[in-house]
Amino acid sequence: MQLEAILKSYARYAPVYDHTFGWMLSFRGRSMAAGIANRQPGRILEVGVGTGISLGYYRREHQVHGIDISPDMLERAHRRVRQKRLGHVTQLEIMDARKMHFPDNHFDTVIAAYVMSVVPEPDKVIREIERVCKPGGDVIIVNHFVAERGFRRHFESMLAPLSAKLGWRPDMALQEILSHTSLHEVARHTLPPLGLFTMLHLRKPG
Fold it and tell me: N or C end of the chain: smaller count of CB under 10 Å?
């Protein structure tokens, strides 16, 4: 995925995202990810915060930071924070997840929901996520990963050449994340609809 194609895709999606993709993807993936973060108050980073559709899931005791590469999506996140008075959201800014402007070991929890198959160079993104997470902290990845075999694998491979137009990679393998990080896998959950998405709960060694 090239950055220019991503920005164009999300400029198109931004006005309708909440009413199309947003409600479906929030039902389990985003709420489950926030549920892990909500186990204890802390500093949270949401990578690819988009329109901010998940910001209301976090406990008010948190300090929530959100970044996104799309100004069109982030404009709607700012509007949501104002309208819903989400005072626990302390920072929303445009930032490339491949090179974040945060110090090492800064966040208690880092969440990247429906992001990794969208960003260019996901290997760099997962390494940055690991860098900014505190030792002993949690990393939650929610994403679609290509099936290992069968008809779905064949279909996803056929869609791969259309990645730029779709705005995401249908053929991204799980190992593209796990092979580029020293984060430990705590749990893995298959999510609806139809088991097309996976939630990875990872933890940084303490």
Answer: C
Domains of the chain: 3-203 (3.40.50.150)
- Tell me the whole-structure pTM to 2 decimals: 0.84
Report the chain's mean pLDDT, rounded to a whole number: 85
CB 47 within 8 A of CB 110: yes
